[in-house]
Design brief:
The chain is α+β, with helices and mostly antiparallel strands and about 280 residues long. The protein is built from eight helices and 13 strands. Helix 2 crosses helix 4, helix 4 packs across helix 5 and helix 6 packs across helix 7. The N terminus is likely disordered.
Length: about 280
């Protein structure tokens, strides 16, 4: 009987430890639109890049909320895989509309919008897209030792089926650019490897990882910088898997994880050029 009580106590203690969340201290937290849920779609690249554009505008005092459902409508495929570049290309070809005009819940009920109304002005979707994201406003960076550094390269990845180009820089340089961008109130779209045992949406943390080359399987938006109780550097990530984790859908990714498990990041050229 005593042995059984001991076992039950140990199981209960383990469960409590599993539920216990780490307390992070924010150093930077950028404003954002509500966390969304991409559901069964493969459109994380759209959710993350749109959230990056939104936060970039909101941080400058311009209220922007964009529609992932519109992207799904114009590409007509829930399971189209892509990268941050893919969203920028979709916007350049098909435009964009506001979330209020085309919310996720109304995707199958509303016709494709012909106009976007904003601050008393009327735009076509293409005009609206250009007003929130100018051509060539964003730069794509990678840190891949298999390609020459300081050159633009085409990553040989299934999700890069459009053959978009990335500026290849060393890992430490990429990490430094990301940190400088966020500290100067610029959002960053992150793309990389979430197939690690140290990546847990349930816990809201991405930390432990191995040293293998990263795979390209998810995108999120970097909207902050924080420290854990040991004062280690973490980046605050806005995910698109709903709000059911200890941080309301946000995640904390260690600087070491980001350094080693990044496939690409996207930031404005203004952010990239910060000295």
């Amino acid at each position: 009987m005593k042995k059984m009580v001991f076992i039950l106590l140990m199981v209960g203690l383990a469960a409590c430890q599993e539920r216990q969340e780490v307390t992070f201290t924010d150093e930077v937290r950028l404003p954002m639109t509500p966390v969304k849920d991409q559901g069964q779609t493969s459109l994380c690249w759209a959710y993350a890049m749109l959230a990056t554009i939104e936060t970039e505008h909101i941080a400058k005092g311009d209220s922007v909320h964009l529609s992932p459902a519109y992207v799904e409508r114009v590409v007509r495929r829930k399971h189209l895989r892509g990268m941050g570049h893919t969203l920028l290309n979709v916007m350049a070809r098909h435009g964009m509309v506001s979330y209020d005009a085309y919310p996720d819940s109304a995707y199958h009920k509303l016709p494709k919008p012909r106009w976007v109304f904003m601050l008393g002005a009327r735009y076509t979707p293409l005009e609206f897209a250009h007003s929130v994201c100018a051509p060539d406003e964003y730069i794509a960076l990678t840190a891949n030792e298999h390609y020459p550094y300081q050159q633009e390269v085409v990553l040989d990845l299934p999700d890069n089926w459009e053959h978009n180009r990335f500026l290849n820089i060393p890992k430490d340089s990429l990490l430094a650019h990301v940190e400088r961008a966020v500290r100067n109130r610029h959002a960053v779209c992150w793309e990389g490897d979430t197939h690690e045992s140290g990546f847990s949406f349930k816990k809201g943390i991405a930390d432990r990882h191995n040293q293998s080359d990263p795979t390209d399987n998810h995108c999120m938006t970097i909207i902050g910088i924080a420290r854990d109780p040991q004062h280690r550097l973490f980046f605050t990530m806005k995910n698109s898997w709903g709000t059911h984790n200890p941080y309301g859908g946000l995640m904390y990714m260690s600087a070491e994880y980001l350094r080693d498990k990044t496939v690409a990041v996207y930031m404005t050229r203004e952010a990239y050029e910060i000295p």
